[in-house]
Write a structure and sequence with these properties.
The chain is of the alpha+beta class. 26% of the residues lie in helices and 27% in strands. The strands form 3 sheets. It has a 6-stranded mixed β-sheet with strand order 3-4-2-1-14-13. The radius of gyration is 17 Å and the shape is globular. Keywords: Hydrolase, Magnesium, Manganese, Metal-binding.
Length: 258
């Protein structure tokens, strides 16, 4: 099974990029973030025409997550991260596909830090810790995938010294990510590429992509039973160079069948 994640940075404005990438790569499952679209404007017809069933959790102008599955409709199991019934942000959706539980997530950015937005990010991570522990206790094949808005180590950012005070790189956020690994989750991309400088995001300005001044902020965290089946993980960098591209590149993993 090939599972991908793609922060599309506006699903309608970059629909041609998404459809082109789907046609070229044909992943089995795709997790999308930053739809920036209300539910009623999600381009379900175009995605179904491309051969994918979909579930989505949209929000006007901001956030939004979705899960696509080739030739089938994902079986939705959760909409919204538990722990705060007053949280109106569309940042988590979960489905069962092919015997795997897949959570598509978009962690808050948190800037400026310190401040209320950073506090919200840390609270969101705390809720994720609690729910991730429940998933591990259930001992089901599970993956938490998407834009975590954190560079876990110095290897994941082109110029660490410039990012020390940023909400994506502050020690509190890196520690929050590390606690997920300590729970028993496996960082798929880093496991298969332990020493490589691999990026998934490049800003639009200052020629960042051409200079390869990037960040690794899109991650796959695998439960132990799924980590044993990991056989591939890569970034589709080419898609970042296309016209009207997102500032993120798609990332994918491959899981062996049982």
């Amino acid at each position: 099974m090939k599972i991908a994640t793609f922060n599309v940075n506006g699903v309608n404005g970059r629909l041609s990029v998404l459809l082109r990438w789907l046609a070229q790569t044909q992943p089995d499952v795709v997790c999308l973030q930053e739809l920036k679209s209300p539910d009623d404007r999600f381009p379900v017809r175009e995605i179904e025409k491309a051969g994918y069933g979909a579930i989505w959790h949209g929000q006007k102008s901001w956030n939004g997550v979705a899960i696509l599955a080739r030739d089938i409709t994902p079986i939705e199991t959760r909409r919204g991260l538990p722990g705060d019934p007053d949280d109106s942000h569309s940042r988590y959706i979960e489905a069962a596909v092919g015997g795997v539980l897949i959570g598509s997530l978009y962690v808050p950015n948190g800037n400026p830090a310190p401040g209320p937005k950073f506090d919200y990010k840390l609270r969101w991570f705390a809720r994720l810790h609690s729910y991730a522990a429940e998933l591990l206790q259930a001992k089901v094949p599970a993956v938490l995938v998407g834009d975590f808005n954190v560079m876990p180590t110095d290897l994941d950012v082109y110029a660490p010294e410039r990012w020390r005070d940023d909400a994506l790189f502050r020690p509190e956020v890196r520690e929050a990510y590390q606690r997920l690994l300590e729970q028993g989750w496996t960082d798929a991309l880093r496991t298969l590429h332990p020493g490589e400088r691999i990026y998934t995001f490049w800003k639009y300005f200052r020629n960042a992509f051409a200079r390869d001044a990037g960040l690794r902020i899109d991650h796959f965290l695998l439960s132990p039973t799924l980590a044993d089946r990991l056989i591939g993980a890569q970034v589709d960098r080419e898609a970042r160079s296309w016209e009207k591209a997102s500032d993120h590149a798609p990332v994918w993993i491959e899981i062996a069948d049982v």
